[in-house]
Amino acid sequence: NYSMDALVYSDTMKDYRVHSGIDIASPVGSEVIAFTDGVVSAVSDDYFNGMTVVITHEQGVVSYYMNLDPTLAEGIEVGAEVLAGQPVGYVGTTARIEALEPAHLHFEMRVNGSHIDPLPELP
Description:
seven-stranded antiparallel β-sheet, 50% strand, globular, mainly beta
């Protein structure tokens, strides 16, 4: 669950910390789709969060798809336009910061640079 106000225990890091997104349990290799239309603004292999795709949407909304498999969906690169429901990648095990967690997508959203709980925004 999203938890920016209360610390949660991390089995991997053996400490308490905020959780700036939600973890969506899915088997490794499960398709990950864009939650709405946007433009890919970043693709990186982050040391802690693993393979990450960032999509910029309208009205200052940015979505983050983390812990992806290194092989992304076809055509996913910086500057690519994506549509709601379009594949962006696949669930992986690349996030070192959540390595002891079961397979999942770590999904975050920010509006004008501030984290928000993404769950109410999902269809």
